[in-house]
Design goal:
Elements: H1 11-17, H2 24-30, H3 42-63, H4 69-79, H5 82-91, H6 102-106, H7 113-131, H8 133-143, H9 145-153, H10 160-170, E1 177-186, E2 189-198, E3 203-209, H11 212-231
Antiparallel strand pairs: 1-2, 2-3
Amino acid sequence: MARRAAGRDHSGLEGRLGHTFGEPALLRRALTHRSAAADHNERLEFLGDSLLNCVVAILLYERLPNVPEGDLSRLRAGLVNQSSLHEVAQALALGDELVLGEGELKSGGFRRPSILADGFEALLGAVYLDAGFAAVRRVVESLFASRIDRASEEPPAKDPKTALQENLQGRRLPLPRYVVVTVGGEAHRQVFRVECKVDELGISAVGEGGSRRAAEQQAAESVLAQIAARRDGRP
């Protein structure tokens, strides 16, 4: 049992996305999670991930002609990550459009950041196959305009691992430890779960990602949030 019927009208989503599909089957595939059908969106997600990184890189390169490569890379990482894509997907109300299997539906998969972020990337892959690179650029430029404007005006943020390291060094504390908890998924699509531990503060967090580095970054971000909460007196 899937959450959404395959023939559902997605014109509202197309309006929010800024692209009307000439081949509706591509849109349906982009919205179909692997838990729901054999014709699912994982290959489109792979394509969309690369397209998104490429378009964001082009936009940053054009708007910031005097910014060096390292800072451009950090800016792109801040724009193209699960948290950012989850927010964009929420703005599109993408969770209401996804086709999920019964298990994912019961577990709240239509709200899960990873599924929403992956679904957004799959949409971009579908837009490319439907209308080409220029159409993808128009969609990304529209949806990310305010984020890119903010990134252009602010100094590039440090990645979470670097920020955590500097935070601990400033307190004269040892560096955090990163431990791989599990490695799952298929060989071509592994999922890493990594725990970040700061023993001296009694803080730890687990991150998840498609690479060890991505999982470490997510775990470090969660540890930084816990440190900030303690500093602000939050429970």
